[in-house]
Amino acid sequence: MDLSTCQSYCTENNYGLSGLQNGDTCFCGNGLQSFSALEKAPTAAKDSKCNAPCSGNSTEICGAQAYLSVWNATEAVKIPPTMVKQVGFYPLKGCYNSTVTGTKTSPLLAATSTNVPTSLTAESCVGFCATRGYAVAGMEDGKTCSCEEKLSAAAEELDLGECNVQCVANKREFCGAFGKTLVYVMDSASVDQDGTPKSFGQKNEASVKANSTVY
Q1: Which letter does DSSP use for residue 114 in this model?
Q2: Please, are residues 9 and 185 in contact by the beta-carbon 8 Å criterion?
Q3: Which helix (H) or strand (E) holds 11?
Q4: Using CA atoms in the order 80, 83, 88, 91, what is the torsion angle rounded to 10 degrees?
Q5: Which helix (H) or strand (E) holds 93?
Q6: Long-range pairs for 40-48 at CB < 8 Å and ≥24 separation?
Q7: How many CA atoms lie within 13 A of 115 on its CB side?
Q8: Is the pTM of this model over 0.70?
Q9: Which DSSP string corresponds to 175-189?
Q10: pLDDT digit string (tens) for 47-96?
Q11: Residue of 59, 66, 73, 63 lying closest to 7 (CA atoms)
């Protein structure tokens, strides 16, 4: 493993961020998790917590055991916006109608919500709901985040490509659409014992309709 191998793998799979850990492991994504923390700049390179040589090129640094060296190619490469497959313990469930029609019409996710017209991403929305103890998080129209304890059995699932509005704070991610909510549901079994989401390694892609969005 080396920098160029990891970066190429990520961009080829439609990810703008590449991260290397412990010298030999490559991760990809289009946004940082909501709890990510940037290391305080060291006074010298030798003092950095990212100090593991890459297994494929010892002259390069590839993170450390508990740290990632992160590289950003989102501006250099025309990567289409995509659906974030998983945030922490919350894998993507699907795209749903934002209202549930039964004996009466009600919001899909009604426990709590926040309108964040300048800072919404999939990561920030899931983080908002998770810290409040909700198992379901959803984004609507690129700027609204809503939470709920569980997804209604009457929820109307739509084609994934219909949730094609980009997040206001990250144009590489989709955050639902007008009247349509992109939903994430907490699933503790979706993460391996070492903390790696089971979606890791899957090609990052959305439907043709979603990926055709102009940006």
Answers
A1: E
A2: no
A3: helix 3-12
A4: -150
A5: strand 90-97
A6: none
A7: 2
A8: no
A9: --BTTEEEEEE--GG
A10: 688 999 999 999 999 999 989 999 988 676 677 788 888 888 999 999 99
A11: 73
DSSP calls for 119-175: T--HHHHHHHHHHTT-SEEEEETTTEEEEESS--TT--EE-GGG--PEETTEEEEE-
Following DSSP, what letter does each residue of 18-56 receive, concatenated?
EEEETTTEEEEESS--TT--PPPPPSSGGG-S--PEETT
**Residue 73 structure tokens:** 């190619």
Tokens of 160: 């994934």
CB 139 within 8 Å of CB 132: no
Can you read off the two tokens belonging to residue 92? 């993507």
CB 120 within 8 A of CB 167: yes
The tokens 């509005």 sit on which residue? Answer: 165
How many residues would you count in the chain?
A: 215
- C-alpha span between 68 and 36 (Å, rounded): 10
Tell me, what DSSP letter sits at residue 90? E
Other C-beta atoms closer than 10 Å to the C-beta of 130 total 20
